[in-house]
Amino acid sequence: MRSDNIKEGIDRTPHRSLLYATGMTKSDMKKPFIGIASSFTDLIPGHVGIRDLERAAENGVYSNGGRPFVFGIPGICDGVAMGHRGMHYSLPSRELIADMIETIAEAHSLDGLILLTNCDKITPGMLMASLRLNIPAIVVTAGPMLSGHYHGNRLSFVRDTFEAVAKFRINEITEKELNDLEMCACPGQGSCQGLYTANTMACMTEVLGMSLPGAGTALAGSAIKKRIAFESGARVVDLIRNQILPRNIVTVDSFKNAIAVDMALGGSSNSVLHLLAIANEAGIKLDLRLFDEISKNTPQLTSLRPAGEYFLEDLDFAGGIPSLLYELKDFINTKSMNVSGKSIGEIISNVNYVNNEVIRKADNPYRKEGGIAVLFGNLAPNGAIIKSSGVTSSMMKFKGTAVVFDSEESAMENISKGKVKEGDIVVIRFEGPKGGPGMREMLAPTSQIVGMGLGEKVALITDGRFSGGTRGPCVGHVSPEAQEGGPIALVKNGDKIEIDIPNRKLSIDVSEAELIERKKQFTKKPKKIDYGYLSRYSEIVSSADEGAIVNRNIRK
């Protein structure tokens, strides 16, 4: 066992002495040491219930002869961090999380890991760590929140609360209605109720094979979720005994399956960024064109919030990811394995119920193509991402006039003052991984546009990101980013821009000669944050089309 490095032999007498000081017994020294990386915090709803999962996972480990140790990992809620300085830290926290887990696991020679997570960047960060370390590991996502209810309508936090603010500002709802809604939108623990980034990544984790069947959609606080945590604790001991490693489970085909499910769900555009980064840690090179190829050949079988009307609880009650995989069996590799020891084919052989409205059959999809499209053109030579499932048919092709802002704050101020009108394309730049820094989500500007009734009349383009809650013609991850001198940095007010989703094009109606001339005048902007972690991060982070990664030296 790896843990023998700290507990076996005469030379390890001091090490054992320290371990005994924690209350360990001599019999514990013969057991595999399993770290439970817990992102519990009582600050955010997605993670407030993780303490219960810690106990369940510990009991599972004990039940199968292992010795668990809980250690803490930070958790950021993008909803709380949104719209202020905090959002600069969200994406960079993914790298910190991966590094922290690596640090603890290596410093203490842990034999295996249980990774307790839920919200947007924590799950991909933990997956990155598991594949980097390549020691036995299982992920347990804490699960989605139940829908809120207000005046007979179901609510999801991201879509309903952010858009309600804009509705209040144009006097469509009263302040009392706004206050009443904020008290109803989030009824308890769990991740946001729709197919936003946290739930998208929970589903991706299950499809990649790193969490037990059903884990991706099982509701927060439910008895099922606690049983999954217990079973994960017991199962990781078996993985250690049999030396079944993350890279044995997560293969190229696993990623292709995850991308297909992402497209069938119409998941968050952030999933592209995270899958690229996770694959990098596995030594697997993914390309944006692969995402687009799979999207073109995968039907969208669900219609979940924010663009649709169903919630994660509906998906779970319809059988969750196993039921979706059953309907996608002709589009995926069913031989891919899961930490349970079963293949996808074996898992879906037990599917006996599918709600054909929540999860449609492949021959009756919501859309013939997947929910995310990759655009290229002279405005995005290295690619850009749009959640096409959230775009109405009337906006699939859109030409408009550029209204340019060099920060989210500037855009918000001018949108609220009515400076953006029908037919405009809002360009928010210098918000990429380096320029932001941290590639902030532009949920507030998009929600304001939708809430003001301009959702089908105005488009938005950025080198930043979008929340999983974004809907409408919003193009993000434009690469290269503005801070690197990408074409988005050269756009001027009044330029004509074309978004053509069916033909996968994002272009500016400016000649190549003019763009070259503008490039000569370009200079990088000074760092927005020139101290601490974000200053270091901005110097080493890669482009969005590579996953906004900082670790390029992959462990063999």
TrEMBL record:
Q: Which reaction does it catalyse?
A: (2R,3R)-2,3-dihydroxy-3-methylpentanoate = (S)-3-methyl-2-oxopentanoate + H2O; (2R)-2,3-dihydroxy-3-methylbutanoate = 3-methyl-2-oxobutanoate + H2O
Dihydroxy-acid/6-phosphogluconate dehydratase N-terminal domain segment(s): 31-346
Briefly state the protein's biological role: Functions in the biosynthesis of branched-chain amino acids. Catalyzes the dehydration of (2R,3R)-2,3-dihydroxy-3-methylpentanoate (2,3-dihydroxy-3-methylvalerate) into 2-oxo-3-methylpentanoate (2-oxo-3-methylvalerate) and of (2R)-2,3-dihydroxy-3-methylbutanoate (2,3-dihydroxyisovalerate) into 2-oxo-3-methylbutanoate (2-oxoisovalerate), the penultimate precursor to L-isoleucine and L-valine, respectively.
* Subunit record text: Homodimer.
Q: Does the keyword Nucleus apply?
A: no
Superkingdom of origin organism: Bacteria
* InterPro entries tied to this protein: Dihydro-acid_dehy_C, DihydroxyA_deHydtase, DiOHA_6PGluconate_deHydtase_CS, ILV_EDD_C, ILV_EDD_N, IlvD/EDD_N
Q: Which residues form the Dihydroxy-acid/6-phosphogluconate dehydratase C-terminal domain?
A: 357-548
- Give the record's family classification: Belongs to the IlvD/Edd family.
This chain belongs to the protein called Dihydroxy-acid dehydratase
Which residue positions does N6-carboxylysine occur at?
121
- Which GO terms of type biological process are on file? isoleucine biosynthetic process; L-valine biosynthetic process
Q: Which GO terms describe its molecular function?
A: 2 iron, 2 sulfur cluster binding; dihydroxy-acid dehydratase activity; magnesium ion binding
| Assigned keywords, A-Z | 2Fe-2S, Amino-acid biosynthesis, Branched-chain amino acid biosynthesis, Iron, Iron-sulfur, Lyase, Magnesium, Metal-binding
| Comment on bound cofactor | Binds 1 [2Fe-2S] cluster per subunit. This cluster acts as a Lewis acid cofactor.
Q: What is its EC number?
A: 4.2.1.9
Q: Which gene encodes it?
A: ilvD
Q: Where is the active site?
A: 467 (proton acceptor)
Q: Name one GO cellular component term.
A: cytosol
Specify the pathway. Answer: Amino-acid biosynthesis; L-isoleucine biosynthesis; L-isoleucine from 2-oxobutanoate: step 3/4; Amino-acid biosynthesis; L-valine biosynthesis; L-valine from pyruvate: step 3/4
Look up the record and name the cofactor or cofactors this protein needs. Answer: Mg(2+); [2Fe-2S] cluster
Q: Does the keyword Oxidoreductase apply?
A: no
Q: Which residues bind Mg(2+)?
A: 78, 120-121, 441
Say which enzyme class the record assigns.
Answer: lyase
